[in-house]
Amino acid sequence: MDKPTTILYLTKRFPRLSETFILEEIIGLEQNGIDLKLFSIGDPKESVIQNKVKKVKSPLWYLHNNPSSFFLDSLFRETQALVCIGIKSPKRLFKALKTMVSKKFSLKSLKHLLEGAVIAKEAKKLNVDGLHAAFAHSPAAIISYASDLSGIGFSFAGHAKDIFTTDKTSLANRAYAAQFVLCCSRGAFDEMVKIAPGANVVYMPHGVDIEEFRPFEDKFFIHNKLHLLCVGRLVEKKGISFLLHAADMLKRRGIDFQLRICGGGELKPHLSKLALELDLKDEVEFLGEINHEEVIKQLAWCDIYIQPSIQLENGDKDGVPNALLEAMACAKAVVASSIAGIPEVITNGINGILVRPKDPIGLFAALKTLAQNMELRNQLGKNAVVQIRNNWNRKQAHKELKELFVHTYSPGKIPNYFTEYDLEEIEQYKSNSLGIKGFDLK
Questions:
Q1: Is residue 191 located within the same domain as residue 233?
Q2: Is residue 152 part of a domain?
Q3: Residues 248, 375: one domain?
Q4: H/E stretch holding 307
Q5: DSSP assignment of 96-162, as one string?
Q6: If we measure between CA atoms, which residue out of 98, 89, 99 comes closest to residue 120?
Q7: How many Å apart are CA 422 and CA 424, to the nearest integer?
Q8: Do 192 and 233 reside in the same domain of the chain?
């Protein structure tokens, strides 16, 4: 039996409540036969942890147990790893140093080089076939150095902030050096292709578990109040302040509603204060951080799901928010900003309503229309389910990602399209003198 493809998988903070898509990808790859060796730069130390973390098979290694601003907690171990690699393979050390000095030198790039040395050392020890970073910023920087130092190929994924706010030259260099770059939205894909034309950029959405997130049997029952839901971190790019102003307009127009906002983040004090200033203390609830199971309960509770995302001045914006996809999979009418990857999944007026970002009046108008038209809400929800099931099936996405890893990092396996030939014929073909460059059947 063939040895399974083994991938060292590096993420930034694990397990993180707001990055369920990373957890699902890890579980999905393991269930599809990839042998993952899971590493994280640090521990988020969050109070709420997804129950699904228990399903992860791989042990979890942290690069830093107690990170300081310069990660001095493991400086000796990292320096020792780099020196050992330099003694054994000066050429690899030179290549990594050349990569570092080709960029604008900083303590951050030196830190990433040292962290990359630890990853390279562990990758050799674990006998992995490939290296993969879950994000295009710090994890990809570390993995690229680890690849230089170990000689093992690497890949990385880009989502939203990690693409839009990372130095474009550094990002392009990583993309050209990588075996492939994964993008989970068309917006991210287009941005990566623009940054690194000719790089192997692959569009592969994360999708939704359509068995877990599905229409509720009682979705058509009528509440005394309109139930509104928004799930996401309480940070500026989620646009929740604009939603609160829209809620104020709903109240002024006499529409009876209850709005639940789920998530934790730096803006919670500000948003709580704003809700009080708008006299929404009876209409708005901040539920804090909630796990996967509680998200499903809240989706069962709500009539309309709202995603009021915006773009920040530094370019940071959402890709395709997973909570939005989950709401659509549950046949909920959704109202969302026409920004980033959101229009990839919502066709305005067909399976949801799109409004301009930073437009509380537009949000109010959409919510008022849906509040007064239950038939429209139900039809949007039905169409949303069809869209998700046809185009955003998570299990299918994980199977395709598994095949990409196997094809890329298990070159010793003969591709299916050569099985009709025997090994002797293949060896003869490989040894011919046609002079074809860059063609290797291994």
A1: no
A2: yes
A3: yes
A4: strand 304-307
A5: HHHHHHHSPP-HHHHHHHHHHHHHHHHHHHHT-SEEEESSTTHHHHHHHHHHHHH---EEEEE-SHH
A6: 89
A7: 6
A8: no
Instruction: Report the candidate in 175, 177, 208, 178 with the shortest Cα–Cα distance to residue 191.
Output: 175
Its domain, for residue 44, covers 6-203
- Residue 167 corresponds to which tokens in the numbers above? 């130095």
Residue 431 lies in a domain: no
Tokens of 6: 């083994």
Phi/psi of residue 93, each to 5°?
-65, -40
Q: How far apart are CA 210 and CA 413, in angstroms?
A: 33
- Tokens for 267, please give them: 């803006």
Q: Is the same domain home to 238 and 132? A: no
**180/86: higher pLDDT:** 180
Check whether residue 193 and residue 232 sit in a common domain.
no
The answer to whether the beta carbons of residues 233 and 263 sit under 8 Å apart is yes
Number of domains the chain contains: 2
Q: State whether 178 and 262 are in the same domain.
A: no
Mark whether 179 and 233 lie in a shared domain.
Answer: no
pLDDT reading at 279 higher than 50: yes
Q: Which two tokens stand for residue 208?
A: 């939704």
Residue 216 placed within a domain: no
Please, what is the average pLDDT of the chain? 87
Cβ-based neighbours of 237, under 8 Å, separated by 6 or more: 161, 309, 310, 311, 312, 316, 317, 318
Tens digits of residue pLDDT in 250-259: 999 999 999 9
Per-residue exposure over 380-406, b if at least 16 CB sit within 10 Å of its own CB, e if not: bbebbbebbeeebbbeebbbebbebbb
Mean pLDDT, range 64-73, rounded to an integer: 60
Domain ends where: 350, 371, 391? 391
Cα dihedral 406, 54, 295, 348, rounded to 10, equals 0
CA angle at 154 for the pair 151 and 157, rounded to the nearest 5°: 165
CATH code of residue 254: 3.40.50.2000
Q: What is the pLDDT of residues 124-147, one digit of tens each?
A: 999 999 999 999 999 999 999 999
pTM equals 0.84
247 and 166 in one domain?
A: no
Q: Is residue 396 part of a domain?
A: no
Please give the Cα distance from 422 to 36 (Å, whole number).
32
CA 102, 107, 111, 114 torsion: positive or negative? positive
Model confidence over 310-337: pLDDT tens digits? 998 888 788 889 999 999 999 999 999 9
